[in-house]
Amino acid sequence: MLHVLRATLVNLLFYGNMVVWIIVWLPTLFGPPSWALAGLKAWSRHSLWLLRVTAGIDFEIRGRENLPLGGCIIAAKHQSMWETFALMPYLDKPVYILKRELLAIPGFGWYARRGGMISVERARHAQALRRMTHDAREAVQNGAQLIIFPEGTRKPVGAEPDYKSGIIHLYKQLGVPVVPAGLNSGLFWGRKPGQRHQGKVIISLLPAIPPGEDGRAVLASLETQIESETAALVDEALDGRQPPPWYKKSAA
User: Fold this and answer.
1) Residue 140, class by beta-carbon neighbours within 10 Å (0-12 exposed, 13-18 middle, 19+ buried)?
2) Are 47 and 83 contacting, i.e. CB atoms less than 8 angstroms apart?
3) CB-based contact 166:150 (threshold 8 Å)
4) How many other CB atoms are found less than 10 A from the CB of residue 54?
5) Which of 230, 251, 69 is nearest to 149 (CA)?
6) Which residues contact 31 (CB under 8 A, 6 or more apart)?
7) Tens digit of pLDDT for each residue in 182-223?
8) Are 177 and 210 within 8 A, CB to CB?
9) Under a CB-based contact definition with an 8 Å cutoff, are residues 40 and 113 in contact?
10) What HEC string does 132-180 produce?
11) Second label for 53, Cα 20 to 30 Å away, from 18, 103, 141, 185?
12) Cα separation of 53 and 172, whole Å?
């Protein structure tokens, strides 16, 4: 019960902080897109600090030297909300590819749209894919780092992977390197509001796969590298310690 109460308080502070930033940074929505992106980066940095202070959730980003110069794709494991914002302050031009429903969220959607995030309307299939590819091409030509989750949705720690082919479509069409990224965020930030657990989230950026490789081989390589790195990071974080309750349930 104490853990649930603490997690509830953390959630209230996290989302309350988001509301404050939305209000304070409203003027940036009337300037160039770089202003809105600066606001998103500032909110992200402050949120990471807040999580460390209130929930004991620290973080580490490894392998930043593996990021190529210029535009690229970062293909990351997706276990929690954490990775949907945490990379922003540490990339020059971060552009997330996210589902269109997120742009409908008051406040957050305004900044995401103005800051250049790319939305995907899944129900429209081919038309949505064409639009996403067009927007992504413009972004990488301007030197953006595209962050995409190849499984398309969050996966609990220990769940079977399910990688989609959309990442390979972008890889072929954009002609830029793709950086695999493993992480262990699901150990500390679960899907449910009460699933908050102190510890260190680690995201590991692996060496980039150059453009021009065979698509099927790249997809297989991405899955192997991301899943192997993720498993290693989960083992490192646990290191004999008791895992949070939801880890056992999701891995069963």
Assistant:
1) buried
2) no
3) yes
4) 17
5) 230
6) none
7) 999 999 988 777 778 888 999 999 999 999 999 999 999 999
8) yes
9) no
10) HHHHHHHHHHCCCEEEECCCCCCCCCCCCCCCCCHHHHHHHHHCCCEEE
11) 103
12) 42
pTM of the complete model beyond 0.85: yes
Look-up of token digits 């990339």:
91
Read off the pLDDT of residues 92-150 as tens digits, 9 standing for 90 and up.
999 999 887 777 777 788 888 899 999 887 666 677 788 889 999 999 999 999 999 99
**What is the distance between the alpha carbons of residues 72 and 199, in angstroms, rounded to a whole number?**
30
Mean of the per-residue pLDDT values of the chain: 88
In 3D, which of 61, 143, 127 has the Cα closest to residue 95?
143
Which residue in this structure is represented by tokens 């390197």?
177
